[in-house]
Amino acid sequence: MLIKAPRGTYDILPEDSSRWQYIEKIMKETAEIFGYREIRIPIFEHTELFERGVGETTDIVSKEMYTFSDKAGRSLTLRPEGTASCVRALIEHSQYGGLLPIKWYYVGPMFRYDRPQTGRYRQFHQFGVEAFGSNNPYIDAEVIILLIEVLLRLGLEEYELHLNSVGCPECRGEYRQKLIEHIEPYQDRLCKDCQTRYTQNPLRVLDCKNEACHQAIEGYPTLFSNLCDKCQEHYAKVKETLIENEVSFMHDDNLVRGLDYYTNTAFEIHIPGIGAQSAVGGGGRYNGLVEECGGPDLPGIGFAMGMERLLLAVDKLGEKFAEDKEPDVFIAVMDPAYESQGMKILQLLRKAGIKAEKDYNQRKAKAQMKYADKIGARAVILIGEEEVEKGFLTLRNMRSKEQFQVDPQDLVRSVCKTLLID
RNA sequence: GUGGGUGUAGCUCAGUUGGUUAGAGCACCAGAUUGUGGCUCUGGGGGCCGUGGGUUCGAGUCCCAUCAUCCACCCCA
After folding, report:
1. End-to-end alpha-carbon separation of chain A, Å?
2. What domains appear along chain A, each with residue ranges and CATH number?
3. Nearest Cα to A193, choosing from A202, A184, A180?
4. CA A56/CA A7 separation, integer angstroms
5. CA dihedral for A190, A193, A197, A203, sign (positive or negative)
6. Is the CB of A81 under 7 A from strand B?
7. What is the distance between the alpha carbons of residues A227 and A230, in angstroms, rounded to a whole number?
8. In this complex, which residue's CA is closest to the C1' atom of nucleotide B67?
9. Rounded to an integer, what distance in angstroms lies between the CA atom of residue A221 and that of residue A375?
10. Buried b / exposed e across A364-383, counting CB within 10 Å, b at 16+?
11. Among candidate residues A26, A28, A25, the one with its CA nearest the CA of residue A36
12. Which nucleotide C1' is nearest A371 CA?
């Protein structure tokens, strides 16, 4: 029985890795320009971190975590997202004690036990940023602008930015009560999922896609209209700043987001045409999270982008990625007796920074030439009886088909000349 | 967790109402005289027909299960 990659996981082969390197580079560069620095966090954490940080009632914690016990009986979980780990690291290393804000970014795999489909995997990759220690609405805007900047640099100009404010614990608490009262009479008309949402996290009834549920709760009070003055002001400033910086968005009353820790600003980015899973990024403010995880009362805001989905969107643009896998030079030996000599020349060229290859499959002279051609070598160095006896090397330009004898002492210079002329 | 589609060579796919040693194209390897590429020609290696059961004289073809994959629901990145 052939062992295959586990469900929902996949290999990124060399022919694809250049695409990944391309988007990773753009993300990192953009984040650095915005003043964010890379943090590398563990792939797994104590299960409790996610239970507390992400929230017990979320889909992630309640049914999507890869949880296991290690040999000492600890319950560990493959990280389903990055924010909780960043918060843990922040607290663990007392990073809050220094200059604020703290601005971090991360790139790496996340794990969720979900049913795979287009743009959704069990091991998927996220690029994310977190900014701790400022409750200034301008930093909310900065984070969103950074997200948009990454998209633009990737050439993705068609996006939909959904924006909402989920308020603070105070006004959201009041609103939650209002909403419960509004829904109560229609409770039994809700779908099964919403029945549980109603008792556990009524706000999430709002972003249910089920038409019947929407009809049932029609005329519900919106979160937006129930924000306290402070939250309203904060939200207004964020929107204003986005407008001033030419970031278009749409206010979305139904955007609640799945994770429990969000406060105030919440946003989600969609790119049409990449399948049902069109959210390429999302995030928001989480002012209670650091304290919830045992740290000081420190505000925070961040987002995460899904690399696979971005790649789908980038692919749709039809751009080509330079692979640069062709060698500059191929060493062909006319007889196995000269292989060791070929090996030495190979290393000589490589030391000089020339991308060089030779045959490792006992091919005959003709087959070596064929091979050199197929792998796209620009030049071939031939070593045969005559070369060894007379002490020269034959250098062939594969494009012009010119070939001439060169002095081994001047090999590197001759090769460079040939490659340049081309 | 739910629903639907698909699983035949490395890749893309044929495979007739179930019937002999399962095919093509591409790719790979080797030859077409002696130390030399892209074209052409010839030949060659390769398939537990996803897996396990069942029906049948006989299954790649039919039935069941299972696994994987794709698409959608759900949810999110």
Report:
1. 50
2. 14-168+228-317 (3.30.930.10), 329-421 (3.40.50.800)
3. A202
4. 25
5. negative
6. yes
7. 8
8. A7
9. 65
10. eeeebbebbeeeebbbbbbb
11. A28
12. B37
- A236 token code pair: 């207004």
Nucleotides of B under 7 A from a protein CB: 1-3, 28-31, 35-38, 48, 51, 67-77
| Alpha carbon separation from A194 to A204, A208, A262, A392 (Å, rounded) | 8, 7, 20, 81
- Quote the ipTM score: 0.87
Among all protein residues, pick the one whose CA is nearest to the C1' atom of B68.
A7
Judge whether A274 and A313 are in contact, CB under 8 Å: yes
- Give the whole-angstrom CA distance, residue A44 versus residue A67: 9
> What is chain A's length?
422
Q: Tokens for A60, please give them.
A: 């992630």
Task: Please report, as a single letter, which amino acid is at residue A93.
Answer: H
Residues paired with residue A165 on neighbouring β-strands, in sequence order: A265
**Cβ–Cβ under 8 Å, residues A279 and A258:** no
Q: What are A160's strand-pairing partners?
A: A270
Measured from the CB, is A57 under 7 Å from any atom of strand B?
Answer: no
> Per-residue pLDDT for chain A (422 aa), expressed as one digit of tens each?
577 888 999 999 888 898 999 999 999 999 999 999 999 999 999 999 999 999 888 889 988 999 999 999 999 999 999 999 999 999 999 999 999 999 999 999 999 999 999 999 999 999 999 999 999 999 999 999 999 999 999 999 999 999 999 998 888 888 888 888 888 888 777 777 777 777 777 887 877 767 777 777 778 888 889 999 999 999 999 999 999 999 999 999 888 876 677 899 999 999 998 999 999 999 999 999 999 999 999 999 999 999 999 999 998 887 777 777 889 999 999 999 999 999 999 999 999 999 999 999 989 999 999 999 999 999 999 999 999 999 999 999 999 999 999 999 999 999 999 988 66
- Of A84, A34, A101, A44, nearest to A67 by C-alpha is A44
Q: How far is CA A272 from the centre of its chain?
A: 18
Nucleotide with minimal C1' distance from the CA of A367 is: B37
Dist CA A54 CA A69 (whole Å): 20
The residue among A120, A223, A230 whose CA lies nearest residue A176 is A223
